[in-house]
Design a protein that fits this description.
By secondary structure, this protein is of the alpha/beta class. It has three domains: 3-103, Elongation Factor Tu (Ef-tu), domain 3 (Beta Barrel); 117-249, Rossmann fold (3-Layer(aba) Sandwich); 253-296, Dihydroorotate dehydrogenase B (pyrk subunit), domain 3 (Ribbon), CATH 2.10.240. The protein is built from nine helices and 17 strands. A seven-stranded mixed β-sheet has the order 12-11-8-7-13-14-17, sandwiched between helices. A six-stranded antiparallel beta barrel has the order 1-2-5-4-3-6. The longest helix is centred in the middle third of the chain and has 14 residues, at 125-138.
């Protein structure tokens, strides 16, 4: 049996209760739901397929940003981009949302690479927060760095970092408070001139930092990235420049999210040659070089 088929058998259908809906600039929202069974199983890099409104039959995929298995809640960050997400933004505390979760292949940490570089762009930020949370609370002795980029206001109030980072661009001092509170260094990048942010793409910030590491430090780095396809392609190029392993979480439109419709396929280089793989169950996490070959 393929790993995708095994995974489909582990997906739960759960009636989740809305606990909170927090609005941010740029029509961004953080939705918290009570979904005890899904929260107990979710891993960084996986996502959920939610019913936005009873009147809308098609579900929407959302990356998982945080979970608390003990308390049984899950957080999702999303941006209103169409009818479904707008209807979801109108759901209120106490309402029930049907969800399928957890879905997809998660990120995989490697003991030999204990300085992971997490790169999140826009709505690709949530998986990086989830992975950072997992590292902070479950993986002892790791030294992650989280870089986030956005061209709309970040969905949190940034603050100057209190954690020094060797080799970091001097002008980049803004951070995500939640990560700072976990003891994880974080820096922000934008082209919009937001205070304290690196002036450029988040992948440029990553390249700047990596270029200042010595050979020993680089040997401990692995890149994890999620965001728009151009950003992921750029992250793969940065990884290739420094000969680093890289995992990317792809963003694709999905209809069923359980591998049945094959509407989210992407071309992946496999050991047996090029093949079309479904982002929902074969991914969303892939080896970056399989999706974005260095020569491409």
């Amino acid at each position: 049996m393929s790993s995708a088929r095994q995974h489909r058998g582990s997906i739960l259908v759960e009636d989740a209760v809305v606990l909170a809906q927090q609005a941010f600039d740029g029509e961004q929202y953080i939705l918290r739901v009570s979904a005890k069974r899904s929260a107990a199983r979710a891993l960084p890099g996986q996502f959920a397929h939610l019913t936005c409104d009873p009147a809308l039959p098609m579900r929407r995929p959302l990356s998982i940003m945080r979970v608390d298995p003990a308390a049984g809640w899950m957080d999702f960050l999303y941006k209103v981009v169409g009818t479904g997400s707008r209807m979801l933004s109108q759901r209120r505390t106490g309402e029930v949302i049907s969800l399928l979760a957890p879905i997809g292949q998660p990120f995989e940490l490697h003991e030999s690479r204990r300085k992971p570089l997490l790169i999140g762009g826009g709505v690709g930020i949530p998986p990086m927060v989830f992975l950072a949370d997992h590292i902070a609370h479950s993986a002892s002795g790791w030294q992650p760095l989280v870089l986030m980029g956005s061209e709309i206001p970040f969905p949190f109030a940034s603050r100057p970092s209190s954690i020094l980072i060797d080799g970091m661009a001097d002008a980049a001092i803004a951070s995500m408070p939640l990560l700072e509170d976990w003891g994880i260094p974080c820096r922000l990048a934008t082209l919009q001139g937001y205070p304290g942010c690196f002036d450029g793409y988040v992948t440029d910030l990553a390249r700047t930092w990596l270029s200042r590491l010595d050979e020993v430090a680089l040997s401990e780095v692995e890149i994890f990235a999620c965001g728009p396809t151009p950003m992921l392609r750029a992250a793969a190029r940065v990884a290739a420049e420094f000969d680093l392993p890289c995992q990317v979480s792809l963003e694709e439109y999905m209809a069923c999210a359980v591998g049945g419709c094959a509407g989210c396929t992407v071309l992946v280089q496999t050991d047996d040659g090029p093949a079309m793989k479904r982002v929902c169950v074969d991914g969303p996490v892939f080896d970056a070089y399989r999706v974005f070959p260095p020569a491409a």
